[in-house]
């Protein structure tokens, strides 16, 4: 009698192919969100490293001291590599001449410019407190440095906007994971629905709950692994296609981030499948036989 509902339903076993594909699609959507975050982080880093710091030198700064400062800047971790530029007073006048023409020289004014070093700050150091420390360090260690300038308003604006966006992305990420968990759980529940009588019959003949759950958990873990691999494969193909259509995206490629995301998707697929399978099997074991119909 226990098998009659199975025959009337027309399903003798769960549709595991549907389960694997459904879970893979959910993980694929989460992966797309993750790729968007990785590219956004890379874009923010590039934007942050465009902030320029100007180190103004005294007029009587010795040439060897200037070279010593340049060598030190190349070693400092807060300086973006290959971003150091030295502009002398004479070069500054030439730049002004290029912008305003020869009329700038006809004014007969003394050279108002100073020798300066320009460099971009490494993204990790683009914080108001750290930039203030950089200014203090350079002025303290090098007496011929008259001042250090940077756009404080821009730094504060970037920091505030990044904090807001980070909280927004965190909220969206948590929401997507919760939705994914619910969708995957419902998919697993529907897949195991056809086996509810088999699960209960095994308990009735004396099998322990652990013995009954083990094969379903193994199968659920393997399905989660397969779903995760399918999602990763789809994301890799989508990423290659996007980079072919938009070659500029290659500049934002973050291989360690991609590998971490792909591994996270596989682990997430396995964990959610295992937890959902465990919960569904235990649910059927707790139910009375009459409630299974």
SSE arrangement:
Layout: H1 4-9, H2 16-48, E1 52-57, H3 63-75, E2 85-87, H4 89-100, H5 103-106, E3 116-120, H6 128-141, E4 145-149, H7 152-192, H8 196-204, H9 209-245, H10 255-286
Antiparallel strand pairs: 1-3, 1-4, 2-3
Descriptive notes:
This protein has 293 residues and is an alpha+beta fold. It has 2 domains: 4-46 and 160-292, no CATH class; 52-150, 2-Layer Sandwich (Alpha-Beta Plaits). Helix content is 69%, strand content 6%. The chain is elongated. The termini are close together. Residues 1-12 have low confidence and may be disordered.
Could you name the key traits of this structure?
293 residues, Alpha-Beta Plaits, 4-stranded antiparallel sheet, 2 domains, 69% helix, alpha+beta
The tally of beta strands, per DSSP, is 4
Portion of residues within helices: 55-70%
Structural class: alpha+beta
| Poorly predicted residue ranges | 1-12
Q: Please describe the biggest sheet, giving its number of strands, its sense, and whether it closes into a barrel.
A: 4 strands, antiparallel
* Tally of structural domains: 2
Order of helices and strands: HHEHEHHEHEHHHH
Shape: elongated
- Strand order across the largest sheet: 2-3-1-4
The CA-CA distance between the termini, in Å, is 11 Å
- Tally the helices: 10
Sheet-strand content, in percent, reads 5-15%
Task: Calculate Rg over CA atoms.
Answer: 32 Å
Mean pLDDT: 78
